[in-house]
Amino acid sequence: SSRSPADRLGLGPGELSLSTSLVLVVGFVALSGGLHQGLVSLELRETGSLAEIDRWVRESRARAPTFLLALLALGIAPGFGDEILFRGFVHRGLAARIGPHWGVLVSAAIFGLAHFDPVHSSLAFLLGAYLGVVTQLAGGIRTAIFCHVANNTLGILAPALISHTLAIGGAWGAPSLLVLAGASLLY
What is the pTM of this model? Predict the structure, then answer.
């Protein structure tokens, strides 16, 4: 192709306004929060790779260099690396060959499987589908990168900045966050 690698991966500015991108970022964080609340209510957060990540982050809070490493390794780097690989390379390549809908679903499935844990993989599939739709809407991966980095970074920083994780009210917490995520996509 005569296009640069950055263009082929969708690293350009995309087609969305800043305000629309921010709405989609809020929606992604809401989706992740709703799924988190669902895991907590089903008592699945304490198992598998997600529990290991939580443990590592808790232990790293006491030591600034280790915490900064956790922030970089779990908060920022995956947002760039995963999105370049899964939305830039896999999704955009598949969408060009098999269509945008199948591109979203197949790349989300591959993203989920790459997390190697039944619970984490299921969530990653749903989050990957959202990021795939964002990529399609934006015409590039920048907004998906912002979604991923914001979500992961908040996931690392929030427990460190407050003494307990914020829980959104009872039985309506997860559904409310999921509705917000859906509304963000509809916007």
Answer: 0.88
